[in-house]
Design a protein that fits this description.
The complex is a heteropentamer of chains A (249), B (379), C (239), D (306) and E (350). In chain A, the strands form two sheets. In chain A, strands 6-7-8-3-9-10 form a six-stranded mixed β-sheet, with helices on both faces. Chain A is built from nine helices and ten strands. With 249 residues, chain A is α/β, with parallel strands linked by helices. In chain A, β9 and β10 form a beta hairpin. The model of chain A has no long low-confidence stretch (mean pLDDT 87). Chain A is globular and about 60 Å long. Among the domains of chain A are: 86 residues, P-loop containing nucleotide triphosphate hydrolases (Rossmann fold, 3-Layer(aba) Sandwich), CATH 3.40.50; 33 residues, no CATH class. With 379 residues, chain B is of the alpha/beta class. In chain B, 44% of the residues lie in helices and 19% in strands. The radius of gyration of chain B is 21 Å and the shape is elongated. The termini of chain B are far apart. Chain D has one domain: ABC transporter involved in vitamin B12 uptake, BtuC (Orthogonal Bundle), CATH 1.10.3470. Chain D contains eleven helices and two strands, in the order ααααββααααααα. Chain D has a two-stranded antiparallel ribbon with strand order 1-2. Chain E is mainly alpha-helical. Helices cover 75% and strands 1% of the residues of chain E. The termini of chain E are far apart. In chain E, α2 crosses α3 and α2 runs parallel beside α5. Chain E has 14 helices and two strands; from the N terminus they run ααααααβααααβαααα. The model of chain E has no long low-confidence stretch (mean pLDDT 88). The chains are: A alpha/beta (249), B alpha/beta (379), C alpha/beta (239), D mainly alpha (306), E mainly alpha (350). Chains in contact: A-C, A-E, B-D, B-E, C-D, D-E. At the B-E interface, α1, β2, α2 and α3 of B face α1, α3, α5, α7 and α12 of E. One magnesium ion binds next to α1 of chain C.
Chain lengths: 249, 379, 239, 306, 350
């Protein structure tokens, strides 16, 4: 489904991602781990088109998405969440959640003033958003401004929002950082459900391996911008190199 | 005395904005006229009094329109003295024409205002073509063969520069170069360099002079640079009427410079008119300072407006009909008024001024009669 | 050392903490646990005067500190590492650290900054990089280092290990533990309850702006159900 | 001939450029430390000029005294506007545009207070009583005393400010404050004091530049306002963050207003009335093509901004 | 005092109508979409300059008369021609006016559109404010020095409003109605716009365009649309402004005009179209009231100082408002569409 071949990314002089090739198949949950600063978030940003690549090629469902702008990539069905929640802080939780819904009829300056064009659709979207929010215990907060959420709530909203665009694949950057353990657990269960029921695909960056490893099929490990290892969770835990750079044994 | 009737005389002038300094002086001139008129009316037992209602045009056309509107709609005035510049006058024009309000503009002289049959009268200050003639004559009589002009890029500056060039060359003058500077310049260093280059180039083919068509503040900026310019200090200078102001001589360096370059200017303030010195005296007595440039025109415009209203009442349409007649029979502090078809002053009688020997004031050294084209120099 | 009595605080008219009382023992490591939005960060912010306080008292070494301006609280020897925006993003790592030791003499400052680099060796390479351009974990390290450099006797940390790799997270806790051994009192807000309970001897649990539990960590070590009672119940709409 | 014009024009550009630089430095400082595009700076400049005018008439014509008093008065005005206006707005975390409008309003108030004063005491279009003296002359050009005050002053101030901001703890604190106000307070930086110092500095700069600008031109209530966009152009060219960049920007603006305009006029007959567009075109080009201005030339990690 | 209340009201309302158009356009651009358009004067002036051009070029053609050069020596004749046509051929005047509105709106819209793409290159958002601000000045300086458009700095007079043939008060009332109608349409449009998914999109872009982009929104296109709409409305206000004044001149379209519009929007409440209306109304009334006060105080024997104090007062009110009512008089609604109300009803219902 997602295919990276020899992707590199430089920040004036600093090679944050170097020669990374990886692939994710439809319906998989793949973890991406690595020490701080190893280039995980950068890789995600490159895939989602936020940063242009320095070298390499990225394909998503047979499309070459390397040169595409982030909105085009999103429209192909590749959604994402953010490491530090970048919400629309002056907007309500509900508006934040609905926003990414694709191809809204009311998002056209000519039709927008006439409610009959979009009332029906909006109603459905709101119901759907509410449902997603409820699943992560945020339902009652739908009318609150995003700026008035706690740090963990912001993170949750970010996850809710990333689902709204009906992506076939989601890139998540530390979805449970700052989230209380029971809720984190249920977030992962939620992810597993999505894979089960809707055949969604996930690439997840996470440091909380105790959670992550219960849910992922495979794990990639990054170190200093390069791929260090790639294996099943159990094998990764045995991998000496990984243990050294990541767990410090 | 209950049966005293009060006429409101509207005054629309820029008090704020870049022309702010003019507005106050103008208004003082008008208020002085009203005061004197009221005193006369009272002494003669006429039961009419005038009252001034003044509003700020902010120096823009839109501001002028709003000022005139506000005066007319909230005081019942039908006659307005002002505004200052041609673009302000044109801003107020539509409202005036549509509502039968008379605009008596004392100092606007730009060509786009020369429109026949409207409610705008530009009494006293003659259209720029007379001043252009006067300067052309002076330039020729002083033996200037070429002229380097620096002028403000507005209707006044453009019009005068253009006319002057035509007149000067018609009178046998040689080459004229012009440099237009944008209004309200932060400084004029670059223009000064260009001017100095123009002068240097023109000097090659004959006696050259500088002609500064600029506002007082701009002249100050120019002089600050010119007085240490190796070339601009070596030629003679002419300048427009605005510059005949004690403020320009307040800086010793500038005064000295103007003296050394034989600076010459014209002014409409003609001491030959019997009303001039009484006006200056009473103005100084009232406000402590002598009147600034143009203030006498405001004074005269107010008088013409009031005299017309005494004859025609506070009725815009009647005043429109009557005003040329009154104006044509009015002798002002500067000169007689005589209006042409456009309602603009047609008489131009200028005094010619230079810096006095002690560099403290301007003194008159001659006259120029625009109607006859007669230039008389006393020295 | 730090004693909070019946504290009522929030944001504008919105009240988040309701008559909350907590005592922090000197030289202890205390962890504050609680679900998202339970008011942990609000509590720490209140100590630094960054919320609207409508009632109660906060005393530090028997001195009332409500009303002392934010910039003067650090002079009392309290350092605070916020949950978000805890670094100067436009400045380099070194400059960030230098700001934390602004009171020290030049030589001493240099020495202490070196020690901070020893603490987080990754930062050494990045010393002259602008912190805004660094990875989430690297930033977190800078923030902790800054708090530590201020030489506090009480240090408040809001989720210091969020986003840190296990290795670094462990190192951070080790470092913090060492600090506490040297006599620094620590208050640590954590989501990673198990790790926190391993290191911190005192536990406070917040729920919806009130204190629901305060005690020693041993209680939890024996009985996992306690953890479940206090932390496990607070979640999830669906079962 | 052409050579003479060029030299002449270069010298004048240098003088005007130094004055622009002095004014632009203040703007760079408020922009980088206080995150405020301060349009009221124009009026601080005017206040300085009026102070100089009044001092020169009533107290002394010694340039040192004139400049000193101008600096003091303008910095007091700057400080007062901080305390009464800008500080409350910062407290409520207003957006940059609200701050911009606030600075515009502050400028408006000062400007019309000056109008009132000028009107009452008849102080429109006045000259500061500092005579121009010729200190150096050749056949081709003349250098006045003002030239020798203005050029070194601005260069010295630029160096001093750069040092202050980049090499002193105070400078570092200033930048910290600009970056993250709450955190600066949390780590105990006396933010209010740092701001006061910044404003005093900004005011003093404005005062000095106002006095010098007044000597160069003439004093009227709008003098600062008329020049402010050119000055902003200079500051933007400097990347709004670096002092050496700002001074270079100021020279470039002055140079293009004078020398380049000269050439355009000479070669293509472009009228000088288009001159005010030049700094604006520079602004547009710089912002579109090279938004970092000249900062690249003075590259260091210490750039004030993000 | 001899106040003509009716005439004053008409005048104030006319200004209110014209200014509220400017305010509405800025409110959509900045208040909702976060595009800091500090070039309002530019887009308003495009309307005005278009007016100047159509009244001198198009009007004679429509009336079947010969073109007379509007500047220089034939100026008086050209003015005569314009006034004749407008006074005696109302249909032609209307057609000309209508075409002017359309042309102005389209040109300005396109320029706004182009600007929005140009500035995609800008690094920081507020640079756009500066580019537009100085862009306005560049255009103004150009027009001021370029004869063929509106006779350079001389300007074009006698560009009357189309109802001028009616004469007197009925003409101004008719024009006022037209202005208010246009303003009302713009208001309703903008009010509905922000209460729609499009409004939500704009708000999102205002807050963080980078994130909006990664969430699948075409930010560049949306901004261009907004600039197109805003610039169109501004240009329409410019046409109305010019024909109300009867004169087109570069001196009116300076930075202060832009700042005035900003003040209206900030005062009324960013992001709320009602706020834009209220802001325009407050300024229109305040402007006239202080002008009247200045006149009356002057007549009562005070000096002219109030003309200065007026501005100080204005600035102080602005500062106090921004300080104590930072959201403006009418704050922005928290949410966009009615979905919230529906949900609230549902969740509290069961
Ligand atoms: N600036 C604010 N304005 C209004 N309400 C706020 C603000 N910040 C937080 N809140 C609200 O206060 C409550 C407590 O927030 P707080 O940040 O203290 O939670 P927390 O316990 O730190 O949670 P987390 O672990 O998710 O960071 C939350 O419900 C949140 O919505
Ligand atoms: N915009 C940028 N400019 C320059 N350097 C950057 C930028 N973004 C990231 N970097 C650098 O690239 C490296 C990789 O950063 P990245 O954010 O991808 O790390 P990460 O693996 O996500 O780490 P963490 O787990 O701490 O979030 C880091 O050293 C960081 O400093
Ligand atoms: Mg990361
Ligand atoms: Mg928190």
């Amino acid at each position: 489904m997602l295919e990276l071949s020899k992707v590199s990314k430089d920040f004036d002089g600093l090679r944050a991602v170097s020669n990374v090739s990886l692939s994710v198949k439809q319906g998989e949950i793949v973890g991406l781990i690595g020490p701080n600063g190893s280039g995980k978030s950068t890789l995600l940003n490159v895939i989602s088109g936020r940063f242009p690549v320095t070298a390499g090629r990225i394909t998503f469902q047979e499309h070459d998405i390397t040169p595409l702008s982030p909105d085009r990539i999103f429209h192909l069905g590749l959604g994402r969440g953010f490491q530090d929640p970048s919400l629309f802080y002056q907007m309500t939780v509900l508006d934040n959640t609905i926003l990414p819904a694709k191809a809204q009829k009311g998002e056209n300056p000519l039709f927008a003033p006439f409610k009959r064009f979009w009332r029906q659709e909006e109603h459905q979207l709101a119901e759907r958003a509410y449902e997603i929010l409820t699943q992560i215990d945020m339902g009652r907060l739908f009318g609150q401004l995003a700026s008035e959420l706690s740090g963990g709530q912001m993170k949750l909203l970010d996850i809710a929002r990333s689902q709204m665009g009906n992506p076939q694949m989601l890139l998540l950057d530390e979805p449970t950082a700052g989230v209380a353990p029971p809720l984190a657990q249920s977030i992962f269960e939620h992810i597993a459900n999505l894979r089960q029921n809707e055949n969604m695909t996930f690439l997840i960056i996470e440091h909380r391996l105790d959670m992550l490893f219960n849910f992922v099929d495979r794990v990639y490990v990054m170190h200093m911008g390069e791929l260090l290892a790639h294996d099943t969770p159990d094998e990764i835990l045995e991998n000496a190199e990984v243990r050294e750079v990541y767990f410090g044994d | 005395q209950d049966d005293v009737e009060t006429y409101v005389l509207g005054v629309a002038q820029p008090f704020t904005g870049p022309l702010g300094s003019f507005g106050t002086d103008f208004t003082r001139g008008i208020e002085l006229a009203v005061m004197q008129m009221n005193a006369e009316l009272e002494a003669s037992g006429v039961n009419i009094r005038f009252e001034v209602a003044s509003a700020d045009t902010e120096g823009t056309p839109d501001g002028a329109a709003r000022a005139v509107q506000t005066i007319v709609q909230t005081t019942g005035a039908e006659v307005i003295v002002g505004p200052l510049t041609t673009s302000e006058v044109l801003g107020a024009k539509q409202f005036a024409d549509e509502n039968g309000v008379v605009i008596v503009a004392p100092a606007s002289s730009g060509i786009p205002g020369a429109i026949p049959g409207d409610n705008i009268f530009r009494v006293m200050y003659p259209p720029d073509n007379f001043a252009a003639l006067a300067f052309a004559e002076i330039a020729r009589s002083r033996g200037y063969e070429n002229i380097a002009i620096l002028h403000v890029d507005d209707p006044f500056g453009n019009g005068l520069a253009e006319r002057f060039t035509i007149d000067f060359q018609a009178a046998g003058g040689g080459e004229v170069t012009t440099i237009a500077y944008s209004p309200e310049p932060p400084d004029l260093s670059g223009e000064a360099t260009a001017l100095s280059a123009d002068v240097a180039q023109l000097s090659g083919s004959g006696n050259t002079a500088v002609f500064c068509i600029c506002f007082l503040a701009d002249a100050q900026k120019l002089l600050q640079v010119a007085q240490i310019d190796p070339i601009l200090t070596t030629v003679e200078w002419m300048g427009v009427e605005n510059l005949v102001s004690p403020d320009l001589l307040a800086d010793a360096g500038h005064a000295q410079f103007l003296q050394s370059v034989n600076f010459i200017s014209v002014s409409f303030t003609d001491t030959a008119t019997p009303l001039t010195s009484p006006f200056i005296e009473s103005f100084t007595a009232e406000y402590g300072d002598p009147p600034g440039p143009f203030t006498n025109y405001a004074f005269d415009a107010a008088n013409i407006a009031m005299l017309t209203m005494l004859a025609a009442g506070n009725d815009g349409d009647a005043v429109t009909g009557m005003l040329p007649f009154v104006a044509n029979h009015y002798i002002g502090t500067s000169v007689q008024a005589y209006l042409d078809d456009n309602g603009d002053q047609a008489i131009a009688f200028y005094g010619i001024f230079r810096v006095a020997d002690d560099a403290s004031s301007f003194i008159e050294i001659g006259t120029y009669n625009g109607s006859t084209g007669l230039l008389e120099m006393n020295e | 050392m730090l004693s909070i009595r019946e504290l009522t605080a929030g944001y504008g008219k919105l009240e988040i903490l309701h008559q909350l009382s907590v005592d922090i023992q000197v030289n202890h490591m205390t962890t504050i646990l609680g679900a998202n939005g339970s008011g942990k960060s609000t509590l720490l912010k209140s100590i630094f005067g960054l919320t609207t306080i409508t009632g109660g008292s906060i005393t530090y070494n028997d001195r009332e500190i409500i009303g002392i301006s934010t910039e003067n609280i650090s002079k009392l020897g309290i350092a605070y590492v916020p949950q978000r925006e805890n670094i100067f993003a436009s400045m380099t790592v070194r400059e960030n650290l230098a700001l934390a030791v602004r009171k020290a003499s030049r030589a001493e400052a240099a020495l202490r900054i070196d020690r901070a680099f020893d603490l987080f060796p990754i930062l050494t390479k990045r010393a002259n990089q602008r912190t805004g351009l660094m990875s989430g974990g690297e930033r977190q390290m800078v923030a902790i280092a800054m708090g530590w450099l201020m030489n506090p006797s009480l240090m408040l940390l809001d989720e210091p290990t969020a986003g840190l790799a296990p290795l670094v997270a462990k190192e951070v806790f080790e470092t913090l533990y060492n600090l506490s051994q040297k006599g620094i009192t620590l208050v640590i807000v954590e989501q990673n309850a198990r790790t926190a309970l391993r290191w911190c001897e005192d536990v406070c649990i917040l729920r919806e702006g009130t204190l629901v539990y305060q005690g020693r960590n041993d209680a939890f070590a024996e009985d996992d159900s306690l953890l479940h009672t206090y932390l496990g119940l607070l979640s999830i709409g669906k079962q | 001939m052409f050579e003479r014009i060029l030299i002449d024009s270069l010298i004048r550009s240098m003088q005007v450029g130094s004055l622009y630089a002095l004014m632009a430095l203040g703007i760079t400082l408020t922009m980088s430390v206080l995150k405020l595009p301060n349009f009221a700076h124009a009026e601080f400049v005017t206040v300085g000029a009026y102070t100089a005018l009044i001092v020169s008439r009533n107290v002394s014509t010694n340039p040192i005294i004139i400049l000193g008093l101008s600096a003091i008065v303008a910095s007091v005005v700057a400080l007062v506007s901080h305390i009464t206006v800008f500080r409350p707005f910062e407290k409520q975390k207003s957006s940059i545009y609200i701050m911009l409008l606030a600075s515009f309003a502050v400028g408006l108030i000062i400007r019309y207070v000056l109008f009132l004063t000028a009107d009452t005491f008849d102080l429109f279009d006045q000259r500061i009583q500092v005579p121009l003296e010729i200190w150096y002359r050749t056949d081709n050009f003349i250098l006045s005393n003002v030239f020798f005050w203005v050029v070194p002053t601005s260069i010295v101030l630029v160096i001093a400010l750069s040092l202050l901001l980049n090499a002193t703890p105070l400078g570092r604190e200033m930048r910290a404050l600009a970056d993250n106000f709450d955190l600066a307070r949390v780590i105990g930086i006396p933010v209010e004091r740092v701001k006061w110092l910044t404003w005093l500095l900004v005011g003093a700069l404005a005062g000095i530049s106002g006095a010098l600008w007044g000597i160069q031109t003439s004093v009227s209530p709008l003098m600062g306002w008329v020049v402010i966009l050119s000055v902003f152009a200079a500051a933007i060219l400097g990347g709004l963050s670096s002092f050496p960049g700002t001074i270079l920007g100021a020279y470039v603006v002055a140079f293009s207003e004078n020398t380049i305009m000269q050439v355009l006029n000479f070669q293509f007959g472009l009228s000088f009335s288009f001159k005010p567009a030049i700094p604006f075109i520079i602004i547009v080009i710089v912002l579109l093509i090279r938004p970092e201005g000249f900062t690249q030339f003075f590259k260091s990690n210490r750039s004030l901004k993000r | 005092m001899n106040i003509d209340y009716v005439a004053t009201t008409i005048a104030v309302l006319t200004f209110f109508g014209i200014w509220s158009l400017m305010a509405i356009s800025l409110n959509i651009e900045y208040g909702v979409a976060g595009i800091p358009n500090f070039g309002k004067a530019l887009f308003v002036s495009i309307g005005a300059y278009t007016t100047g051009v159509t009244y001198t070029r198009l009007l004679p053609i429509l009336a079947g008369r010969d073109f007379i050069h509007p500047c220089g020596s034939t100026l008086a004749d050209a003015i005569q021609l314009r006034s004749d046509i407008i006074r005696t051929m109302p249909v032609v005047a209307f057609v000309n006016f209508g075409i002017t509105l359309v042309i102005a709106a389209v040109i300005s819209g396109i320029i706004g559109f182009a600007f929005s793409y140009l500035v995609l290159r800008l690094k920081e958002e507020w640079f756009l404010a500066l580019v537009l601000l100085v862009g306005g000045e560049i255009v103004r300086i150009f027009v001021r020095g370029y004869q063929p458009l509106i006779c350079a700095n001389n300007g074009i007079s006698a560009v009357s409003q189309p109802f001028a043939f009616m004469g007197g008060r009925s003409a101004s009332i008719a024009f006022l109605m037209l202005v208010l109608l246009i303003a009302f349409i713009a208001y309703v449009y903008s009010e509905r716009l922000i209460r729609s998914p499009y409004g939500r999109l704009l708000k999102a872009i205002r807050e963080n365009e980078d994130i909006a982009r990664t969430l699948g929104k075409d930010v560049a296109k949306t901004k261009a649309q907004v600039m197109f709409i805003g610039s169109m409305i501004a240009a329409i206000s410019g046409v109305l402004f010019a024909v109300n004044l009867g004169f087109v001149n570069t001196n009116d379209y300076v930075v202060t005009l832009t700042l005035d519009v900003w003040v209206m929007v900030v005062l009324g409440g960013l992001g709320n179209p009602k706020g834009a209306l209220l802001g325009a109304f407050v300024i229109a009334v305040l402007d006239r009231l202080t002008a009247i006060a200045a006149i009356q105080m002057n007549m009562a024997g005070f000096n002219l100082e109030f003309n200065f104090v007026r501005f100080i007062l204005f600035a102080v009110i602005l500062l106090l408002m921004m300080r104590y009512r930072p959201q403006g008089i009418l704050p922005e609604p928290n949410y966009t569409t009615e979905a919230h109300d529906n949900l609230t009803a549902r969740t509290t219902g069961d």
